[in-house]
Amino acid sequence: MLPTLPSLVMLQQYWYLNFNIMKRVLFCILVMSFCVSKAQEKWVLDSENSFITYEASHFLHDWSGTNQNIKGVLVANEDVFQKIAIAMYIRDFDSRNDSRDNNALEILEVLKFPKIEFFSDKIEKKDQQIKFYGSMSFHGIEVNKEIDAESVIDSKKLSFKGVFDLSLSDFGVPLPSFMMRKMEDEVVIKYELNFQKLER
Description:
With 200 residues, this protein is an alpha+beta fold. The chain is 20% helix and 50% strand.
């Protein structure tokens, strides 16, 4: 059966949105990668060894989903972190339940808002403790967010690990319900981001 005209239009809109968002993310990463001084260092996220996991709850059960296809870049000046940009597709979160993941994609309106992005240009470091003051874009809404991390640094590798809470209602996400009870508004985000230093 040939696809209907509305289906073709939705498909065209989906690819157009994804293309333009990816183009914007790549542009930001390229700008951060090249517009640095000689004293600055560039670090690129090692996607194969990084992850972000959400943990969500309903009174009947808990579940989680993990994304292991994350893009990111970090700019530093010697031991001072200056900027970080992280981006990921919502569709890449896997909870090991296709039906649940498909329902989540519908609720989160991924055709309109396919990505989650975080950017910070104010980063505080005290020993191994890091605090990122930045903005998170999710479900078409941008919210200021402070994220804490523990860092491990050597000459060519850099790792951030941490946990923080995220309120779905802050981003206008409608909470799905089951058995006349909605899921919890707060989800727990756990992450490990491993960066590799770019050689000049």
